[in-house]
Amino acid sequence: MGDPISQLMDARRSCEGVGNRRRLFAQFDQIFAEGVGDVLDLPTSAARSLGPAGGGFRLRSLTMTNWKAFRSGTVQLGIHDTNRPLTLIGGNNGNGKTSILQALTMGLYGSRCSIEGEGLGAGEGGGRRTEYRLFIERAMHRPAFEAGERMIQVTIEFVTRQGLLEIERHWYLDDAGRFLEEDEELVLRTGEDRDIVPVPADRELAEYYEETISRLIAPPSMMPFFLFDGEHVRRLAERDLSEQVRFGIESALGISTLKGLVDDLKDYARDRARDIQADDAEAAAALKWQAISAERERALGDLIEVEAKLHPLQVHRDEIVQGLGALGNGTYNDKQEELHLRHGEEAQLRKLRDDLRLSLTKHLPIALVGKSLLAATERSLKQGLGESLAAPEGLSALVGQLRSLEPRLDFDAEKLVVDRVEKAWAALSEKKLPIGHAYLEGHRIGPIVQTMADVRKEGMEFIRDSLAAIEQLKASISARNTLLSARASADQERERLAGELSTINSSIAVLDAERRRIDQALGSIEGRMVPINAEWEKRRALRKVSSPMLVSVELANEVVMIVNRAIERIVPEYYGILAERVTAIYRQLAHKGVVERIAIDSRGMVSLLDRQGRDLRENDASAGENQIFAMSLTAAISELLDGPLPLIIDTPLGRLDTQHRERILRFLSGRSVQAVLLSQPEEVGSAYYRLISPKVHDEFHLEYVPSETGIGGTRIALGYFERHAA
């Protein structure tokens, strides 16, 4: 037996849409009858069935024949240019934009797009086989049917990592317009020569081709994340954020399909167990086992619930501790030292200003005089001062000469002569104001001249130094004030965080105690399970000899348990990866910029965190903001596969406001991944067209062609709307 999970999935796919489940259960019987020896492979098989598949492709062309509004039509895209990733297909309402999107979904997945995927978003293609049949019947181009045509054809070319892949699907109607389901055809071709893909001898053609499409392109569960319309984004946005995330992860990992298998296996086990009769002893052992297993499940559920409450508290606690560390460790003494230094600098500043004020009073009037005038005034004063002064030593020399005359004068005559000479000398020594300086009357000229010299040599230098010192002190005081203010704010924030941390630690302590209690209870339960299980296994072993079907029932239950465990183990690993991608894209698209990080815990619960770690989900978001999150999630999910998915979007901008529209267009045009926009003329009009035109590689528009005989059709023309592209 090969991969047991894959075989079970293949059996389920082969019976899709069949109302009677006996055929499916018969295939399960055969698989389990052959797979008894492979039970140990089940965990590996389950893990292998989970995980992203596909991706790394781009659309090359789409050809439609007798499809809805198109008698025939082809969208042929040029060689992909990572610098010009956009394709624009414009069309008025009713001209066929949605028909193109539906041709891609139906051409890719056929009935699987309405059974495994999310439908077509327009409601027309949703549901099961009946809805699929009705959709195909309505998809027939009416004028072609009236002209005798009975076949619808959609051909899609993709460039994949393994080269060109052509997918061609045919649907046939009878003369009454009824869809002939058994005649539906799917053909895959590869390479430029269009060689038909060979099918292994042990595989069904349709099953193998559908598997090839899922592997090289993407599974049907991923359809809502690369082929969708604006209405789908709006509906997704109406869901709770956590529900959106879980839906996205389950789609990317193929979990919804596995869950469908689990449900079928449970039904199978219940159905087959009805034919197995147990004796009283085994029934009693089974009841004991079921009771203690239920007790264990309840305890595990309680533990999961406690851990789900504990995890976000622990994350928030760590964020608070990190925030406290970022606030620094300023002490009371540090604050007092800063205050002391600031007071000292303020005292220095006051003294400097007083000294400067005195200096300016003394020196500023003279300093304001021009240099040339000041120099001339100084020279004039010095000259006048020199002419008016007689040196005292000259008087002494003159008196000495008079007293040495021969013949000497008598005492009285000598005294009289000396008195007269001294009076004459004194007259010579009296101050004489220089010409033009009468305002100096009553002032000493010498100190004035000295002051002028001081101003020129030292006064201006003192003023400059004082001003520089004042500015330096002011800057230092301002810096200290800023530091003290920041420390005051930090003290308040530290006090707030400390209070919040205390509350959180109390809650964590309570939950930790509860977790320990549950762990102890689980240990006790699992200890009691050992003898009960041993007794039940002994009774079952005796009955397996007489009831071979019991092996299949037990193996089905084993698969259910292993698949569920694989989902529980693997899914949380992708939540962290998804959170990083959603955060990066959301920050590009949202114009408010308040969301710093999007966190997704192990249960898929979403938090929109600001810079302080507060969850902004407590605030009501606008419809536009919810759509931006849904768009971010859609783009992020499309990047989880082995390669990024192109985005093919009908009416991409919907009801978004101007800023959000611009950001979405910038985001799509800024990626290197292909994006095909099916837009109305008002959506990507003149301003928006000019915004993205350098990134547009291919342009088309849809033209309605009326018919004189009845219903018209649509043709695909090159170029975007002329009035908007101008």
UniProtKB/TrEMBL annotation:
InterPro entries of this UniProt entry? P-loop_NTPase (IPR027417), Rad50/SbcC_AAA (IPR038729)
Set out the biological process GO terms recorded for this chain's protein.
double-strand break repair
**Organism superkingdom:** Bacteria
Per the database record, which ranges form the Rad50/SbcC-type AAA domain? 61-187
Molecular-function GO term, any one: ATP hydrolysis activity
- The coiled-coil regions, if any, are none
Write the protein's name: Rad50/SbcC-type AAA domain-containing protein
